[in-house]
Every structure is written in C-alpha cells, then in structure tokens.
Design a protein that fits this description.
Elements lengths: L2 H45 L3 H98 L32 H13 L6
Helix pairs in contact: 1-2
Amino acid sequence: MSSKSIRSDLDRLKKTEATLRKKAAKHEGDLAKARVEAARKRKSAGSTSSVSTAQTYLRGAEAEDKKAATAAGKLADVSDKIARNGADQTSKLASLASAEKSEREALARAEDQRHRRQKTERDAAERKADRQRKVEKDHVREMARLSRASVPHVHLRPPEPEKLRVLYLTANPSIDRALRTEAEVNNVLAALRGAKFRD
C-alpha cells in the first residue's frame, strides 16, 4: 500500500475520531445533566410533605436515571469506538513509516540504477570516441605516408594490332519487302577498305 493511500486513511480516521469525540462530549453532557436532574428530583421528593408529589418526583428521578443509563451506554460505545480508532491510527502510523521507508529505498535503488546506466553510457561514449580518434589518427598517418611516397611511373606497352572482326546480323521485319543484305555488306566492306588503319 502506498504512503499516499495510508495518509488518506489516517486523515479519514482522524476525522472519524473528531466526530466520535463530539458525540462522546454530547453523551457526557446528557449523562451529567440526567444525574443532576435525578438528584434534584430526589431531593425535591424528600423535602415535600405530599406523598403523591413525592411519588411524582421519584418517578421523574427514575426517568432521569434511565436517561443517564442510556447516555452512559452510548458514551461507553463511543469510547470503545474511539479506542479502536486510536489503535487503527497507531497501526496506520506504523504502516506509513514502513511504506515511506520502502518508497525511500525504492527511490534510492532507482537513483542508483540511473547513475549506473549513465556511467555505462558515458563509458560507451568514451570508448566510441577513442575508437573514432584512433581511426582518424590512422587515417592521418596513412595520408602522411602516401604524400611522402613517390609514385613510380608505369610504362605500358602500346597495343598490338589485331584483326578487326565484324558481326553482321540481319532481320526482316516485313514479309512484303526483300532484304538488301548484299548491298549493306558491300557498304560495310567499302568503309573498312577506306579506313586509315585498315590492315
């Protein structure tokens, strides 16, 4: 259970306690009033000379005693509820302390994990930066080596003459017209004979 919900329960219990204490005060007032009234009526019954008036006072005193007994019962019931409420509050306070401790520990664990994750990420970034710096240094060294080295001249042999081969393909897209393949072959041969490097 979270500390927030426990605090909410504690607030509810405190409100209930305040209500119960108001009821207890009212029942204590009713009890005291009934006892005073019963004592007054008994005193009046003892001081009167009329038997019927004395009996009336005594019946009134008995009614006040019943009221006092009822008020005392209600007061006892409310006192029991106040005692249970106090025990519940004590239990909730212990639960609240335990929940707050657990939440603090969870926050500390989360913070520790966050620090560890950040350290891991920093270490990985540093390793990556180191690798990148090494690649760049190697590249600079290679460029320096290449700029110092003399490039040898490569002498290539001139190409040897070879016979010219011509592949000649013909196709007739239309059946109506005859192909003039001989004339076209003669034109190609004439062009080759007239070329500068015909041999």
